[in-house]
């Protein structure tokens, strides 16, 4: 028996102009639109969601940001905020930033970090800048940097003892484990001889497999990280207002 085929029953058919139509008379999705539906977000515009504890699926790299341009710490903190927004536990330990005459006693990033669940920070720097005649003692800078490195080792050890494939308490002690650890200005401390570069390498190589470790600082290339860091970014200065006498500005530099 022969069965008649009725084109009106097809899910999509072609109109007289050659355009593909759906059974409702609407134009079928284009190839590009169809491809978008296969992306992680399904082609939908992102919407904010409540931050709940979660675990990353692909963390575990070592990243380093160095160079004479502005934006190394900013890039690291930007990733920290992004990770915290997904519910991952993030902690930032700052070397060499204990305050200076050029900035006020409050920093915008600290206020913002305090407002985001799962993102914490601590400052281990000495007032002023090492090697400058600003009234600060270089031996105090050295002592602060050594203490900060001890703290970094404790944080990495805590991460090694934790299960980083599972969600972590957003208000938990960072020594109980974090998914992302930012060691801000550690490379600058190594560049200044306050921390041994070999110790930085050892720390990076000792981290647990699933910990994302982010290192920043240094105007000089940290060649000792070649083959150690998975991502190395040179933040190069093309122009900087500081060269024209512009001081640090509230809301951009602090």
TrEMBL record:
Regions crossing the membrane: none
Pfam families the record matches: CobA_CobO_BtuR (PF02572)
Gene3D superfamilies: P-loop containing nucleotide triphosphate hydrolases (3.40.50.300)
Ranges of Polar residues composition bias in the record: 14-23
SUPFAM superfamilies: P-loop containing nucleoside triphosphate hydrolases
Region (Disordered): 1-53
Coiled-coil region(s): none
InterPro entries in UniProt: CblAdoTrfase_CobA (IPR003724), P-loop_NTPase (IPR027417)
The name this protein goes by in its record: Cob(I)yrinic acid a,c-diamide adenosyltransferase
